[in-house]
Design goal:
alpha/beta; Rossmann fold; 6 helices; 7 strands; globular
């Protein structure tokens, strides 16, 4: 590169530099509705940003055309026996052709995990989702939000930084995850949309 002279940039008309619409897909599994509730809160936060469209889909009915066109894919799973759920793992395995073709390489990725217990091994789920994204050549975005405390109304109360952690406490979806977790999910969505 020594001695290389680059041409001057060509000015573009204002219309040519207008920001394109960015697409976010949230793909999740939710057996009882708690993980779906978190997915919708993330979507709500992301939709607060201009120029963002968000598609939320369950792993049982993935829209691969939308996933392939997305700028960011957010993966979400409940924590079952210290791992992603079976349907989430089946979805992950079904993306092997996209892995082979590097279809998702360079896209942003993020993840969230929900469990009944306060810990519930959610970190293991986030690690599994992150490794999955890395296998695809994606760019992982964590949750850069310091905890505001450790009560159910606090943001990032479980101090998750690899991704979003929420707790359903085996309560009905009208009560769980609690307000702090849902507000953290909305914050996470807005943050992720801001990366695009």
């Amino acid at each position: 590169m020594i001695g290389l002279t680059l041409p001057a940039p060509v000015p573009l008309p204002i219309a040519a530099i207008a920001r394109p619409i960015r697409q976010i897909c949230i793909v999740y599994h939710s057996a009882y509705g708690h993980t779906a509730k978190v997915a919708e809160a993330i979507a709500m936060g992301a939709r607060q940003r201009e120029g963002i469209t968000v598609t939320v889909m369950a792993v049982e009915q993935p829209d691969y055309e939308r996933l392939d066109a997305a700028d960011l894919i957010i993966f979400g799973s409940p924590t079952y026996m210290g791992s992603v759920s079976g349907p989430m793992k089946m979805f992950m395995d079904h993306t092997s052709k996209r892995w082979k073709n590097r279809s998702w390489a360079g896209k942003w990725a993020a993840g969230f995990a929900n469990s009944g217990g306060l810990s519930g091994d959610k970190l293991a789920v986030l690690q599994q989702l992150c490794l999955f994204a890395m296998q695809h050549g994606m760019l992982w975005a964590g949750l850069p939000l310091s905890p505001t405390g450790h009560s159910p109304v606090d943001l990032n109360r479980m101090s998750g930084f690899l991704g979003l952690m929420t707790q359903s406490d085996n309560a009905p979806i009208e009560l769980a995850p609690p307000a702090g977790d849902i507000n953290t999910a909305a914050w996470f969505g807005a943050y992720l949309a801001g990366l695009l």
